[in-house]
Write a structure and sequence with these properties.
19% of the residues lie in helices and 35% in strands. It is α+β, with helices and mostly antiparallel strands and 236 residues long.
């Protein structure tokens, strides 16, 4: 696996800060899978989910080795997905029971609204030390003045795969374009990452952003006119 010390740092690429002190709070409610209808639950603005265990001692909290069937307000689910790489403080039926991370979620194929989610219960030590692998979206920074009007910034990927403690994994990477030139694309190994976070080894040599050229409107019109003249001469 890739290690942070093997990464190449480039000045100007911004690294998100640690999220140790910015935990999202989730107010979870237990649900009865036999009596709580899923469609009725969703119509009421609640999204069904599941909270899984990570340690034997979790059973002392939840009294079930298979985890807990839960439900959550759709607005909190939306916020949770937006900050999917953030550790979360969870309250279950009014009682604080520790922390959790979002493992995955499902969306309706037509409305694209969340219909189910899975959380993994974790303690503080696990949040700080347990390594996870997550895909993180890339966003581009402001267009610098050195990039000409007929030059086009072309992202080659939408996300990168990072490895590290969940408390340090960012929700996105903003790439500065200050060092982007026609002959100098930005590679994965150029990304500056938070301390303790590494780029997956398969991403190191991948091209992330390149600079291309666009054809100006007047140039396109000139080429078309030239072609018409050549065609007329040949027809005569």
């Amino acid at each position: 696996m890739a290690r942070p010390c093997g990464l190449v740092r480039v000045e100007g690429l911004e690294a998100p800060q640690s999220k140790e002190e910015s935990l999202i709070h989730l107010d979870l409610k237990t649900r009865n899978p036999h009596s709580d209808g899923l469609n009725a639950m969703r119509d009421a603005g609640l999204i069904p989910g599941h909270l899984s265990m990570t340690e034997d001692r979790d059973q002392e909290i939840f009294n079930d080795p298979n985890g807990v069937m839960i439900k959550l307000d759709h607005r909190q689910v939306k916020k949770m997905i937006t900050h999917k790489n953030d550790p979360m403080t969870i309250v279950l039926d009014g009682k604080k029971v520790g922390h959790a991370v979002l493992q995955d979620w499902q969306r309706d194929p037509v409305t694209h609204k969340p219909v189910h989610f899975n959380l993994k219960h974790m303690n503080k030590s696990q949040l700080s030390n347990e390594t996870m692998t997550r895909a993180v979206p890339i966003i581009l920074g402001e267009r610098p003045e050195h990039i000409k009007q007929n030059e086009m910034v072309q992202p080659q990927v939408k996300e990168v795969v990072l490895e590290g403690p969940i408390s340090k994994l960012p929700n996105h990477l903003e790439i500065s374009l200050d060092h982007l030139k026609m002959d100098t694309p930005i590679h994965g190994k150029d990304l500056k990452l938070p301390k303790g976070v590494a780029l997956h080894e398969e991403e190191m040599d991948k091209v992330m952003v390149v600079l291309g050229t666009t054809i100006k409107a007047e140039e396109l019109e000139s080429d078309t006119t030239t072609g018409e003249i050549k065609e007329e001469v040949l027809s005569n």
